[in-house]
Amino acid sequence: MSIMSDQNQKETTPEKQEYNITVYTENQIGLLSRIAIIFTRRKINIDSLNTSPSEIESIHRFNIVINETEDVVRKVTRQIEKQVEVLKVYYHTNEDVIWQEMALYKVPTDTIAEKALVERLLRENGARAVLIRKDYTVFETTGHRSETDSLIAALQPFGLIEFVRSARIAIIKDSDGFNRKLREFERIEPGQEPVENEYLNDRDKVFSM
Amino acid sequence: METAQQEVLTEQEASSGIELTGSAALLEGLLVEGVDTIFGYPGGAIMPIYDALYDYKEKLNHILVRHEQGGIHAGQGYARTSGKVGVVFATSGPGATNLVTGLADAQIDSTPLVCITGQVFAHLLGTDAFQEIDVINITAPVTKWNYQVTDATEIPEILAKAFYIARSGRPGPVLIDITKNAQIQKFNFQGYKPCNHIRSYRPKPIVRKEYIEQAAELINAAKKPFVLWGQGVLLGSAEQEFRTFIEKTGIPSAWTILGAGAIESDHELNVGMLGMHGNYGPNVLTNECDVLIAIGMRFDDRVTGRLDKYAKQAKVIHLDIDPAEIDKNVQTTVPVWGDCKETLPILTELCEAKQHTEWLEKFRSYQKEEQTQLITNELFPTSEELTMGEVIQILNEITKGEAVMVTDVGQHQMVTCRYAKFNKTRSNVTSGGLGTMGFALPAAIGAKYGAPDRTVFAIIGDGGVQMTIQELGTIMQFGVDVKIIVLNNQFLGMVRQWQELFNERRYSFVDITSPNFVKVAEAYGIPGTSVSKREDLRTAIESMLNTQGSFFLEVMVTKENNVFPMVPQGCSVSEIRLK
To answer: C-alpha distances in angstroms, B35 versus B30, B74, B182?
Structure first.
């Protein structure tokens, strides 16, 4: 019975942490709502949600960030994958993805002009001016949440007028992209090649049909 | 349904196309899908479809219900007894919102439905037009799939997708919302092609033999294996494969209420019903078995009781078509993904032929204890007042377990599921997951259309029958042969039972008054009678069965009887109480 025991013993991490959920979908009106209610029904807050095209034309990609235990994340991803227009769902911890968020800061121009400190601060944070006017200047920076956050705190004393941050986008470190998988989906009969069954080989890591 | 596709267009028409309205194209599609019965209710936004239906009266039998909720429950009843997709029509706004309870019920009980709702003109969407409601968003959580059509040319393809999605994989309800302009719009109809593939949708997971081998290894080594089966066996039409499996392996098997009837009640390996009001042995021995084999069931909380004390000693094998069910509530040792019609034969082949006589004997001894302490009193009472159980006992004696039992929700439902004999598959039609009171009367109408050659009983409580009693009008108008039995204990009995057991008999709003049901039935032209004495009961049931067409029988039963055994909420299955 040794074949079963290793899987049986594997415990999932019980602590909550950030998970990046990547959803490959068809482009369909109403799908965003169907995906969103899977979270709201379970009273899970969506920290960040981004929709974008993927590497394949006509296939869309959602990046969703939630702070939950792995058990909850796994169950939620399976529910998302049940949606008819969803092709595939993956989830990863922050370690397994490269992620970025973009932020914009509007600061009074005279303050920056007067105080060299502010300009240095912005440069140190990798911020770049995207618009300079007499009355205000807009800076842009891209990075992790902690980086964009610390810049808000730093700019606050200098009269930060407006701030906005985008949703997170994430690239999966060990993904080969979706092209090969899509070809499998396009076949009418599923092939014998169990490409959609990674979960069975590595149950805790990946969910799949 | 898959085999009965008829060619409705001539070859020439199919190649060059014909000019049709969206409404006519929809009805053509229904014919190709083999639809014969529609349950529905017209209204402003679906009028073009109803106008087209006027020309299809000979081919499509439309049953005018009395409320859209009745329509969808009838669709469910039809799907459950026939195994086909139930079809329901409703108008926009209130027509559509009245479907929501039935959609939720069908979603949680995996019932295949295609619901068509009318919608206001596309240019009025979002303007708070008369009877406009955002039905797509309202029904998103309670449908397997839904779609709004605003252009007639989409209709054939969307309808084909709807039928494919509703019946494939784990079945479920689908809703198509069609704006009025799309119903009226004429277009070049090129024929209707049923759908058999959607790129983003995999109805069946790929069967992995190595996991079936592991499952067989566990089963072959097991000393006390125990099978739990659910509706998946029925939905997959895998009754024969299931029978072969348990008969070869000799494993005692218990059922969820939606799985009832896959094998006959008196089969020697059928050890009874699972769950809160299930049988004594199956509940207690869940916590004693060494290998638990769950087939097409989803470990509902009413089946498992307290999860952290559920079958912790056992290795769990879970066969299911829906990957999201594996490890959802109970952690499996070996998952067997797939349609059990395909996986069970492979598993059976790998399993050794066995008998588990001693282990089976354990179930028998619990059965005997339950029989003497409880069942005998319920089925053959010596008290003056009638019990629900004795009504079911007489039905068993007369129908020999051949009838369809449609139940509502509450005490009468548990009593029927516990005591009725189910000797045929698709015999127990009940609202399982959602627990919808008011389900039985309309569902029985649909059940009769789905199984016209079978006797259909609607067994309902005095509370539930008053929730959808208007459907007596449908029974009257269409002469539906449904034998209605109301088990009247003058209480909302299940809630009262809980108040007695857990709320110190504080009977808060469970005392319900009923009209003179026999007179109500009579007003609808349905013959009926009410009995309260034992000596009249059998005669009344016999005369009900000898009456052509529908009949309404009210049985006055003991007011404060409780359904036992019971696993109190929050308790383990092994803490099941006999009183």
So the answer is: 5, 15, 22
Q: Where are the beta strands (DSSP E) in B371-416?
A: 404-407
In tens, the pLDDT along B58-79 reads 999 999 999 999 999 999 999 9
Q: Which of A74, A182, A209 minimises the CB distance to B205?
A: A209
Kindly indicate whether the domain formed by B11-189 is annotated with CATH number 3.50.30.50: no
What are the residue ranges spanned by the domains of chain B?
Answer: 11-189, 209-361, 384-556
Distance CA A88, CA B282 (A): 39
Residue A7 pLDDT: 40
- What pLDDT sits at residue A181? 81
**In chain B, how long is the greatest CA-to-CA distance?**
75
Q: Please state, in angstroms and rounded to a whole number, the distance separating the CA atoms of residues B200 and B203.
A: 10
Give A 63-82 residues with CB within 8 A of chain B.
74-75, 78-79, 81-82
In the DSSP assignment, the letter for residue B322 is -
Burial class of residue B258, CB neighbours in 10 A (0-12, 13-18, 19+):
buried
What would the mean pLDDT of A58-74 be, rounded to a whole number?
96
A209 to chain B: closest CA residue? B205
Q: Could you check whether A9-97+171-201 and A99-165 share the same CATH topology?
A: yes
Asked if CATH classification 3.40.50.1820 holds for the domain at A9-97+171-201, the reply, yes or no, is no
Going by pLDDT thresholds of 50, 70 and 90, the confidence category of residue A199 is very low
A164 touches chain B (CB under 8 A): no
- Interchain pair B200, A200: CB under 8 A: no
Q: B161-199 as b/e, with b when 16 or more CB fall inside 10 Å?
A: bbbbbbbbbbbbbbbbbbbbbbbbbebebbbbebbeebe
Q: Return the pLDDT at A14.
A: 82
Interface test with A, best of B206, B219, B322 (most A CBs within 10 A): B206
Question: Does residue B297 contact residue B256 with C-beta atoms inside 8 Å?
Answer: yes
CA of B338 vs chain A CAs: smallest distance (Å): 10
Homologous superfamily in CATH for domain A99-165: ACT-like. Chain A, domain 2 (3.30.70.1150)
Chain B within 8 Å of A41 (Cβ-Cβ)? yes
| A192 to chain B: closest CA residue | B206
pLDDT computed for residue A188 by the predictor: 65
**How many angstroms separate the CA of residue B96 from the nearest CA in chain A?**
18
Residues 6+ apart with CB under 8 A from B396: B419, B420, B421
**CATH architecture designation of domain B209-361:** 3-Layer(aba) Sandwich (3.40)
CB pair distance less than 8 Å for B322 and A25? no
Separation in Å, CA of A174 to nearest CA in chain B: 23
pLDDT of residue B58: 96
Look at B323 and A1 and tell me if their CB atoms are within 8 Å.
no
Binned at pLDDT 50, 70 and 90, residue A177 comes out as: confident
Identify the segments of chain B with pLDDT beneath 50. 1-7
User: B136-189: per-residue pLDDT in tens?
Assistant: 999 999 999 999 999 999 999 999 999 999 999 999 999 999 999 999 999 999
| Domain covering B384-556 in this structure, CATH number | 3.40.50.970
Domain borders along chain A are: 9-97+171-201, 99-165
CA neighbor of B471 nearest in space, from B49, B135, B67 = B67
A153 part of contact set with chain B, CB < 8 Å:
no
| pLDDT tens figures, A158-168 | 889 999 999 99
Given a contact cutoff of 8 angstroms between Cβ atoms, the answer to whether B472 and B526 are in contact is yes
The closest CB to that of B323, out of A37, A78, A190, belongs to A78
Interface touch B324/A190, C-beta < 8 Å: no
Optimal mutation site among A84, A198, A202, interface B, most CBs of chain B within 10 A = A84
Stretch A8-34: mean pLDDT, rounded?
Answer: 84
Domain B384-556 in the same topology as domain B11-189? yes
The verdict on ipTM greater than 0.90 is: yes
